[in-house]
Amino acid sequence: MQIYIHIGMHKTGTTSIQKILLNNSEKLKTLGYRAFVNLPQMNAKNNEYFDPAWLRHRVDLAKKDGLQAIIFSAEMISTFNSRQLNSFMEAFIDYDVSFIVCFRHWVSFLPSRWAQNCSRRDTQSFHAYLKNLRNHDRTHVDARFDIVVERLIATNPRNIKIISYDNATTLGRLLPTCLSAFDLPQIFVNSFQGVNLRANITTDIENTELVRLFNGLYSLRNTLESNELFMAISKAIPVERSYDFSKNIRTILHNHEELKKQLVDIIKENRITVPLSRNDNHITRWEKSVEEISSGFIFNPHNAMLFADVPDVEFVCSEIELDDLPVRIQEKMAVAFRIVDAQNN
Description:
- By secondary structure, the chain is of the alpha/beta class.
- It is 46% helix and 12% strand.
- It contains 16 helices and 7 strands.
- The strands form 2 sheets. Strands 2-3-1-4-5 form a 5-stranded parallel beta sheet, sandwiched between helices.
- Helix 3 (52-64) links the parallel strand 2 (33-37) and strand 3 (69-73).
- The longest helix has 17 residues, at 205-221.
- The termini are far apart.
């Protein structure tokens, strides 16, 4: 009985892989596999829901049913600290465990990860995100992929398979490469050759900028930490208060055209271009660390490297922060969002 633990990371096609696992559950069963995706019982950060006995029971049931393998997939596992990861692994004592992890080079990963954080909770500009990441790069896994690998190695698994997102996408084989890491039959793997991925493309930057500003206002008016998700990842702790307004902003601003125009104009006036290159001193150091520790674990190396050919990126974004907005604009946002008295709602 083989256990495959797919830990992401974020923004590496994980959602697409998880959809394949869930949508093909019956087919996987005929191949001797069972998959579980993003279950609260898997979240070792949250004592209220984490349940290693439940996980162990799922494995025992799969073995009893005569299955050959079970897959657990959750990006949150990549953000576990050593203690949390060890607690998670207690559910799989006496079983062979393989970790599957996918890394995406920072020049394309960071804009996408920042946008995801903004859509889910945070308010900082990309410029501020980069600055804070550099200041917290001893502990923050968005920067230090090598920390993730170190923690996996320390659990003494049967295998660690590190997938290069960049090497796979260059060849147009991200999904087949990831599915191959589960040792699934090649005929099943090849059926996903050429399937388009959309989940990891950062396209609507303007909406991201609007969402993060409203996130900031909500945090301010409710005396909440403004970038709690960023810090929670760094500290390997759960977010106390999460909210996702990304689906509501267009609706809100549709009824406030003047406010939308004012905000968009301010965003455009404060646009900057942030060059992202593997020659950046911080990125060079992060890359060297993960290349060194990943040697021998890379599932799809190119020229024996995790990151072989990585083109530079010029990311266009706004450096405007909530505090930079005029008070009158913030008040209009509050009225539009109905959060002036949110504490009493």
